[in-house]
């Protein structure tokens, strides 16, 4: 095992597994040396892509040349696979959601602790540029203090793939896109969540949610609205954020967007009433042009390193993980309470395991 | 008193009062014959506009030539003024919100009943064309059954005017725009509200809400999201509605909008994955062009008559009111529960006084 290159075997060579293989090609510290999949067709695909396919998971575990196992299987088998890997002395990258329940991840964390191996969850959307722009606005108060942050991901293609339609495999959109969007908030906002309210959508007739919305209230006064939809033929903006000095929007993945802020150079300018339906309104008239400034969005916050480089550095003992297991645990607990709020139609309070960052 | 022209005195000659005077100019069955306001400056404005100003409310009540009193004062004095008017044999049009509490309106309804006079609340935004387009889509299922209807009114000018900043006068945006938006839903959706969840906004530091959002769930499966904001420098669409066959949007008061629906002429077309942040997504890729049809919005639902003509016909005994007091009462009860949900941060259930329409 070299300190500069760690051999990685990808377990589960479906959509995400093969995507990891492509991305790791560009990384100098990790190298994919093989894969394993329970399906013969995917083992064949792996061979065709140039990655030797192991015949069994036991063969991966027993191969001393393997430093890292990357788990990209359906969600329901993450726990068993991760624990075996750690017990065989492997470091582990696991796809999200790492598990469906807090208690399962707690067991996994305990095994990582006992074995002294690294377990990192692939919450890669912390690196999404749209999110990093919002994080920059939040941290630097470019439109004042953000007090309402609305994060929406809308599609019209229904639930993707195969196992994601099934509850037993950990399907549904809350566990797919939801875990990313909630993780972004937990990473960005250093404050306790005081309440969550949510609704799941079952419009498509699947046994799992085809979307959801959740409202999170934080102790520091921020409200987050998180929404995932797969029945939206027209999309609302990816991000819509309100600050004490203005409003900003990121329309979509192209990062088209803008901020509109109060212009403090001019005094208070009374808006001109506009016709709105059968009435007139001054309240809902646009502010006059002079009263506001339209600005470009700021440059995105930059992480210290990529996910893979950070993982390698953590294995080498030279960095703290950017995706901390305590944060992942907090998101899983949040997700359990999103499900609970939707099921009971209650606002859930006093559930967050937040501890202030040092 | 002629059956074709009813003389109207406007009480409260501010923004709405003077707006009524202008609108009634075009109506053949009502005629504004005078006004009363407690402020000398507004009595003067009325005289300048050609409407004689009474010296006191008692003078209006005592004038046998007055058929109708139209109340456009701050909200806190509606009840007293309306009850006096009814007891003096006048028919009454009252601005919204008619009162702040259910019990007050129940007293007013009882007096209308005893005196045999007509009391109608000016819920004029039932006539807004944007709303009537959505009602047409709801009734005619132009994009299938609507299951989520989002109604937003966004401005960036703060709370308007003077008394609307003060709790004692019935200020705040829930009682201003909120009562219209909630009334539209109660009018449109013939189903019991099973829950309401809401949050009020106090960003501007006023003692009353500068905006709110509320989620209403109806027994028939429809969810309504209602939002009013006065700190939104960028606006979200006025209407965003999801149906079982597609999605529709009305951007703003100009009625710019469209529907996008599934194209049943073509089979299922797999979307092409797109780059989204650091990942690829098929789920959140746009449906391929062939898979959808973009359509214009339908023509708006048409009421049988205008608000004023309907009022005149109700006075003459030839029509049922379009704005029924039972509906107004239901909206007031809903508003009380919106306040309650925001105050307690709870989902409120089992409060709606719905009775199925005959």
Helix/strand layout:
The structure is a homodimer of 358-residue chains.
Chain A: E1 6-11, H1 15-24, E2 30-36, H2 40-48, H3 57-61, E3 68-71, H4 78-87, E4 91-94, H5 102-115, E5 119-121, H6 129-140, E6 146-154, H7 173-188, E7 193-201, E8 211-218, E9 223-229, E10 239-243, E11 246-250, E12 257-262, E13 274-276, E14 279-281, E15 292-295, H8 307-315, H9 325-344, E16 348-349
Helix pairs in contact in A: 4-5, 5-9, 7-9
GO molecular function, one term (chains A, B): nucleotide binding
Domain Gfo/Idh/MocA-like oxidoreductase N-terminal (chains A, B): 8-122
Domain GFO/IDH/MocA-like oxidoreductase (chains A, B): 131-248
Explain the overall architecture.
The structure is a homodimer of 358-residue chains. By secondary structure, chain A is an alpha/beta fold. The first copy, chain A, has two domains: 6-122, Rossmann fold, CATH 3.40.50; 138-236 and 315-358, Dihydrodipicolinate Reductase, domain 2 (2-Layer Sandwich), CATH 3.30.360. In chain A, 29% of the residues lie in helices and 24% in strands. The first copy, chain A, has helices at 15-24, 40-48, 57-61, 78-87, 102-115, 129-140, 173-188, 307-315, 325-344, and strands spanning 6-11, 30-36, 68-71, 91-94, 119-121, 146-154, 193-201, 211-218, 223-229, 239-243, 246-250, 257-262, 274-276, 279-281, 292-295, 348-349. A nine-stranded mixed β-sheet of chain A has the order 15-12-11-10-6-9-8-7-16. In chain A, helix 5 (102-115) runs antiparallel to helix 9 (325-344) and helix 7 (173-188) crosses helix 9. The radius of gyration of chain A is 23 Å and the shape is elongated. At the A-B interface, helix 6, strand 6, helix 7, strand 7 and strand 11 of A face helix 6, strand 6, helix 7, strand 7 and strand 11 of B.
């Amino acid at each position: 095992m070299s300190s500069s290159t760690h051999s990685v075997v990808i377990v589960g060579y479906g959509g995400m597994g093969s995507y990891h293989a492509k991305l790791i090609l560009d990384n100098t510290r990790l190298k994919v040396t093989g894969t394993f999949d329970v399906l013969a067709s995917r083992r064949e695909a792996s061979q065709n892509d140039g990655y030797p396919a192991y015949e069994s998971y036991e063969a991966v575990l027993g191969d001393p040349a393997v430093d890292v196992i990357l788990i990209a299987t359906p969600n329901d088998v993450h726990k068993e696979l991760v624990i075996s890997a750690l017990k065989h002395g492997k470091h582990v990258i696991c796809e999200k959601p790492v598990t469906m329940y807090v208690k399962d991840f707690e067991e996994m964390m305990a095994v990582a602790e006992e074995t002294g191996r690294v377990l990192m969850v692939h919450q890669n959307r912390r690196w999404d540029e749209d999110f990093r722009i919002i994080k920059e606005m939040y941290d630097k108060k470019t439109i004042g203090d953000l007090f309402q942050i609305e994060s929406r991901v809308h599609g019209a293609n229904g639930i993707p793939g195969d196992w994601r339609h099934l509850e037993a495999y950990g399907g549904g959109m809350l566990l797919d896109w939801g875990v990313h969007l909630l993780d972004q908030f937990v990473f960005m906002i250093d404050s306790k969540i005081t309440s969550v309210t949510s609704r799941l959508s079952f419009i498509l007739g699947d046994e799992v949610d085809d979307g959801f919305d959740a409202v999170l209230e934080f102790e520091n006064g921020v409200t987050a609205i998180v929404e995932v939809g797969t029945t939206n033929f027209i999309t609302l903006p990816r991000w819509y954020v309100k600050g004490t000095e203005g409003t900003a929007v990121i329309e979509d993945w192209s990062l088209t967007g803008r901020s509109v802020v109060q212009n403090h150079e001019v005094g208070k300018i009374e808006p001109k009433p506009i016709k709105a339906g059968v009435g007139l309104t001054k309240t809902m008239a646009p502010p006059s042009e002079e009263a506001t400034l339209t600005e470009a969005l700021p440059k995105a916050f930059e992480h210290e390193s990529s996910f893979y480089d950070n993982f390698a550095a953590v294995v080498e003992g030279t960095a703290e993980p950017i995706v901390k297991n305590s944060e992942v645990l907090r998101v899983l607990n949040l997700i359990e309470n999103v499900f609970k709020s939707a099921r009971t139609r209650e606002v859930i309070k006093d559930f967050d395991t937040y501890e202030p960052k040092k």
